[in-house]
Amino acid sequence: MYRTSGNKMFELAAYELMSANDAPERDPMDWVLEGSNDKGISWRVLDNRTSQFFEERFQRREFLINSESFQANLFRFRFLAVRDVHSNSRLQLGSIDLYAKTM
């Protein structure tokens, strides 16, 4: 979960995920990004991705958020599947970066 400083609200414009250094089968494939503006009591889906693949190690991929405008100060990812769910249930990521719209 990513908590912003204080009660300041942000509207996300995009985010980046970076694949890690080993085991491509552990890369995320399906996920949901959610935001909350009430301390995590309720969550709103900001982005939902399926069948995503990283072709290289340490590859950065940017995902634009096209959902309806929503300001939040708490964000979370729910990773639903990895690249090869039959051989591995572990997840690996090199990094996650969130980008807010400028106001």
UniProtKB/TrEMBL annotation:
GO molecular function: peptide-N4-(N-acetyl-beta-glucosaminyl)asparagine amidase activity
Domain of life, source organism: Eukaryota
Record keyword Hydrolase present: yes
UniProt keywords, alphabetically: Hydrolase
Root EC class: hydrolase
Keyword Hydrolase among record annotations: yes
E.C. numbers: 3.5.1.52
Protein name: Peptide-N4-(N-acetyl-beta-glucosaminyl)asparagine amidase
Native species: Stylosanthes scabra
This protein's encoding gene: PNG1_2
